[in-house]
Amino acid sequence: MRALRRGVLVAALSVCAAACGDQRPPLCPEAHFVGELPVAATTISRLMIPAVTAHTTSDKDGIAVDLVDGRGTVSYEGRGPIPAFVFSAIPWSLIDRTLFAGLGVKDGVWYPFYLYCSDDGRLTEFDGEMSDRDVAVLTGVEGTCVAGGATSAADFTIPAHSLRDVALSCGFTVTTPPAAARPLELGSSRPGTATTLVGRNVTVLPFHTVDCRANCGTPGWYELHALLANPTERWAAFAVYYLDETGSVDASNGFQLPNAQQYFDSYPGATWQLMR
What we know:
There is one protein chain. The chain has 276 residues and is mainly β. It has one helix spanning 2-20; strands at residues 36-39, 42-44, 52-56, 64-68, 71-76, 79-92, 97-106, 109-118, 123-130, 133-140, 143-147, 156-158, 161-164, 172-175, 184-187, 192-195, 201-212, 221-230, 235-244, 249-257, 261-266, 271-274. The strands form four sheets. A nine-stranded antiparallel β-sheet has the order 10-9-8-7-6-5-4-3-11. A nine-stranded antiparallel β-sheet has the order 21-20-19-18-17-16-15-14-22. The protein is globular. Residues 1-23 have low confidence and may be disordered.
């Protein structure tokens, strides 16, 4: 339930971000990861993908969504069409929406995105990110969005590719105790390190942050949207690290390749600090 609760409250933050205008922290220094992160080819079972069909009917801000049975393309920030798929569906009854989380994949960059779909079949908002820039695109859109049974049972393959020039956000530190069985160390404008729940040693690249300490829920939290990678295994994942005001740190609402599974992790005893 923790991942589900988090996903719902992330949506609340996005609505707040739209309403709060320019009340944002200072921009981070321009910093990027130097190096190339290979990702192996991945076959994703059709059963792993929520069967949602979504299309924009407007061209506001150059945003275009064209998904059938959870697969298709998205375009935003002058980029696209980007091959994309949906990996999670989170009901949000408070505003009669389902939040569909997805990932666009092209050589060089990953594109996490979120669709806001009403119970009466409308696509009402779009929220998109990109791993090579510390930005997010959140705007209202017009379109259709219908969840239902898949019309195609075919699996699909994401070709082998590499990630490059990953942005490095700022304003935080996260550390585990020296004797921690699974260490985690994250810091501003630099690559971090972690050991995952299954014992994989990874580089962690937080490329975007979201401040949800107010207006989202009680207690509040802070988000680090990150890429995780192990070049030797040609493995990578997108995940959101949640820094709770209660003191805990966990990661969820993500997806990993080539495992083709949602990503979850937690770090008991980790501490964190914010500098902006």
